[in-house]
Amino acid sequence: MTCNAWPRLLAVDVEGNGAIPPDLAEVTVLPPIRDGSLDAGAAGTWLVRPPIPVTSFATRVHKLTKAGLADCPACPRSPMT
Q1: What count of Cα atoms within 13 Å lies in the side-chain half-sphere of residue 64?
Q2: What are the tens digits of pLDDT across the range 2-53?
Q3: By C-alpha distance, which of 79, 67, 81, 80 is closest to 25?
Q4: Which stretches does DSSP call E strand in the chain?
Q5: Which residues contact 45 (CB under 8 A, 6 or more apart)?
Q6: Could you give the maximum distance between any two Cα atoms of the chain, in Å?
Q7: Cα–Cα distance measured from residue 40 to residue 56, given in angstroms and rounded to the nearest whole number
Q8: Would you tell me how many other CB atoms lie within 10 Å of the CB of residue 13?
Q9: Is the peptide bond between 51 and the residue preceding it cis, with omega within 30 degrees of 0?
Q10: How far apart are CA 56 and CA 44, in angstroms?
């Protein structure tokens, strides 16, 4: 299979607040791959304020802090928890 025959791919990365179960704190969409090349114009990162503050462990791993997320849109608690 050649690169031109690949389906359009999109990578998404999420970071949590360190709680168990984790709440969303960051979403990153990496550029889609089209015809074997990255479409850099389609990348984006969004921060959200989780309902439970970021743990110190998550801060060490992701560099996200309660203060840094304070002005971000709120992320509601999942109905699954």
Answers
A1: 25
A2: 656 666 677 889 999 999 999 999 999 887 776 667 777 778 899 999 999 9
A3: 67
A4: 9-16, 24-34, 37-38, 44-47
A5: 26, 27, 28, 29
A6: 48
A7: 32
A8: 10
A9: no
A10: 25
Burial of 27 (0-12, 13-18, 19+ CB in 10 A): middle
Pairing of the two strands 9-16 and 37-38: unpaired
User: Which among 8, 13, 22 is positioned nearest to 75, based on CA atoms?
Assistant: 22
Instruction: Please state the rounded mean pLDDT for residues 72-78.
Output: 81
Q: In the structure encoding, which two tokens stand for residue 40, read together?
A: 């850099």
For 49, phi and psi rounded to 5 degrees?
Answer: -90, 110
What pLDDT is stored for residue 42 in this prediction?
73
Residues in the chain: 81
Q: In one letter, which amino acid is 32?
A: P
